[in-house]
Specification:
The chain has two domains: 185 residues, no CATH class; 96 residues, N-utilizing Substance Protein B Homolog, Chain A. 69% of the residues lie in helices and 0% in strands.
Length: 315
């Protein structure tokens, strides 16, 4: 499911494009946000398709070996533990997964070099050799094997990154998070369920969906006002020389602090300071933290930041 951090990143990307295109209507920005969030959900399913394509490639190799004119004993008696991995079989039987992948036409058929590369990388790993040499296995062991593939290989497969970037410029930013989504899905799978279990939903709940919709709308509506507020507190700086991303992240943070009384100020600050570390300049996090501290004081005095809820009054 899409986390609030990823929602903030998606909004950051949409607002950045909105600013560079000299604005536009809110509806267009919203459509872009939902599209980008949906594409992340596509990636969640797309990477599972990749795992299944690796399994299918392994199965094809077993069949080819068995059809040799002079097959070896190993060719005729292959180790099928990987191709019979029950987690992968459950994904293949999962109705919701299959329907989504079919509907979105998710396929690596035109990029077979990726699943072939992943196959050989996995084949050469110590955990693969250990897994295949076991005299017997359990559902927990089979599940751990899939976890090993996801955590050791997928995030480091450079060839996959190149292919994904050609299809969506934001997907490479999503990979770490999407892998964590797949890990959570695998963790929830049950041995006695032919389909494994439920796929994760797009949003955790309606509150997260509403958070995304409200935040992007309020950022656009208040951008100029909050930019002026930032300029007021950066008198020793020329506003045109402050990184655009720094201004944008501060506007987003101010919007969130004002519009969401249930979110602690510290949580909001930490989130945008972390984003600054990854998406802006080396010293942006310190700069943003210092400016926002001053702005928070003013907004509290003006009663524009009012936190409500258990443990938040007076925040």
């Amino acid at each position: 499911m899409i986390s609030r951090r990823l929602i903030r990143i998606k909004i950051m990307q949409v607002i950045y494009a909105w600013l560079n295109n000299e604005g536009g209507d809110i509806a267009k920005a919203e459509r872009s946000l939902w599209f980008n969030i949906d594409k992340t959900y596509d990636l969640y399913h797309y990477l599972i398709v990749l795992l299944l394509d690796v399994k299918n490639y392994a199965q094809d190799r077993i069949e080819i070996a068995g059809n040799k004119i002079l097959p070896t004993f190993e060719d005729l008696h292959p180790n099928t533990r990987f191709v019979n991995n029950r987690i992968l079989q459950q994904f293949e039987e999962n109705k919701a997964f299959k329907e989504y992948a079919f509907k979105k036409k998710l396929s690596w058929r035109d990029h077979d070099e990726v699943f072939k590369k992943l196959y050989y990388v996995v084949l050469g790993s110590d955990y693969f050799k250990s897994y295949m040499e076991l005299t017997e296995t359990t559902y927990a062991i089979e599940k751990q094997f899939i976890v090993d593939v996801l955590t050791n290989e997928l995030e480091n497969l450079d060839l996959m990154y190149h292919v994904l970037e050609e299809q969506n410029i934001f997907w490479n930013d999503d990979i770490e998070f999407v892998i964590s989504m797949i890990l959570r899905t695998v963790d929830r799978f049950k041995e006695n369920n032919p389909e494994g279990g439920n796929m994760l939903p797009l949003f955790k709940n309606e509150e997260d969906q509403e958070f995304a919709k409200t935040l992007i709308r309020k950022i656009i509506l208040n951008y100029d006002n909050y930019k002026a507020l930032i300029e007021k507190h950066t008198k020793n700086w020329e506003i045109d020389r402050i990184a655009l991303m720094d201004i944008q992240l501060m506007v987003m943070a101010i919007t969130e602090m004002v519009e969401f009384p249930e979110i602690p100020i510290k949580v909001t600050l930490n989130e945008y300071i972390e984003l600054a570390k990854y998406y802006s300049t080396n010293k942006s996090n310190e700069f943003i933290n210092g400016i926002l501290d001053k702005i928070i004081v003013e907004l509290k005095e003006d009663k524009k930041i009012i936190k409500t809820g258990r443990g938040l009054i007076g925040d």
